[in-house]
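agent: user wants the structure for Sodium/potassium-transporting ATPase subunit beta-1-interacting protein from Bambusicola thoracicus. delegating to structure tool.
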Amino acid sequence: MAVILGIFGTIQYRSKYLIMYAVWLVLWVGWNAFIICFYLEVGHLSQDRDFIMTFNTSLHRSWWMENGPGCLVTPVLNSRLALEDHHVITVSGCLLDYQYIEVLSSAAQIFLALFGFVYACYVSKVFLEEEDS
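agent: tool returned. relaying tokens verbatim.
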């Protein structure tokens, strides 16, 4: 929604929408930095014991874990580790571990957000200068 408002602000020459978009991008960079730290297990974060991604409501499993490039998923039947709403699997043959795919995706998002932040600040400044003159 913030991206749509940012585009609308650019087309309609509304600097307030661009400023809101820039604030959203700061939050987006923070979230993606957290994702990078989570998957690389920086500090006290651990994927095995922290359910941060689901707010402690269920187990977390990355989509890339089962759908990564070259991954072969095998279900484990009759496992005592499975909860009622989850199934236990083994994943093998992946070209790149899912943690690194998540990190690369978040890094790309940060790069794009930084580019968008610079763009939003510059265009907003130009619009504000035009309003003053």
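agent: one observation worth passing along. Helices lie at 2-11, 15-39, 63-67, 98-132.
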